[in-house]
Design a protein that fits this description.
It contains 10 helices and 8 strands. By secondary structure, it is α/β, with parallel strands linked by helices. Strands 7-6-5-4-3-2-1-8 form an 8-stranded parallel β-sheet.
Length: about 250
């Protein structure tokens, strides 16, 4: 049975002082999550990674992005060795905001996924369609390309976590129905099964897109949804606690 997973993506929010306050309060969050057999974590801005690791390293703590090369003339980028030196072992890859605002592609995501796996780190690979693609009815074609290209060359898919985030639902308040989310998460697993066989059943597939305490339970009841990647609702300790309680 796949263990449930809740990851908060803080995006460009929280100073180090605000992060420290959350981290000190997170011990109770972690206790409650452990009682319910749920893994929990956050992906804060780079500057807050060390703060979280210093205070509560038992959380899953991931970066929001990483470069696939170890070093070089890439102003503003952060490398895998830099993250590993801190003790970070996870990173988001291909979040829709990175794809939309920073021109990330399935191919560039693939380089990051492979580099992370090579360094024994966990990529949390994000896939999802835009509103235009959703309305055209090509969601599954988009997802298929994102999975096949983004995971090209991956030998052990068990080390990857996948998040389905329909772009049209992120930060808009328009969440996909539990039926839509389950249909696509089941389709992702079907795609993985065609490539990796039975190992596909060990991959955790999350749903993300305006997930809140009042709707997370219905998603968690779906057989192919193993957790959630949550934005705004993960920023406060109180809201995060509600998410855990309602999973």
């Amino acid at each position: 049975m796949r263990k449930k997973l809740l990851v908060g993506n803080w995006k460009m929010n929280k100073t180090m002082a605000e992060t420290a306050a959350f981290a000190h309060a997170s011990f109770e969050l972690l206790k409650n999550a452990n009682d319910k057999n749920i893994d929990i974590g956050v992906t804060p801005p780079y500057l807050s990674l060390q703060t979280l690791l210093n205070i509560n390293p038992k959380l899953i703590i991931g970066a929001q992005n990483v470069h696939h090369l170890e070093k070089g003339a890439y102003t503003g980028e952060v490398s895998i060795p830099m993250l590993k030196e801190l003790g970070v072992s996870w990173s988001l890859v291909g979040h829709s905001e990175r794809r939309t605002y920073f021109n990330e592609t399935d191919a560039s995501c693939n380089l990051k996924v492979l580099a992370l796996l090579e360094n024994n780190m966990t990529p949390l690979y994000c896939v999802g369609e835009t509103l235009q693609e959703f309305e055209k009815g090509v969601t599954k074609e988009v997802i298929k390309a994102q999975i096949e290209v983004g995971l090209k060359g991956v030998e052990d898919v068990r080390e990857v976590v996948i998040a389905y985030e329909p772009v049209w639902s992120i930060g808009t308040g328009k969440n996909a129905s539990k039926e839509i989310a389950e249909d696509i998460c089941a389709y992702i697993r079907e795609l993985l099964r065609a490539i990796y066989g039975g190992n596909a059943d060990l991959v955790r597939i999350l749903y993300g897109g305006s997930v809140k305490p009042n709707n997370i339970k219905e998603y968690m009841a779906m057989p192919n949804i193993d957790g959630a990647l949550v934005g705004g609702a993960s920023l406060s300790v109180e809201s995060y606690a509600e998410l855990i309680n309602n999973m």
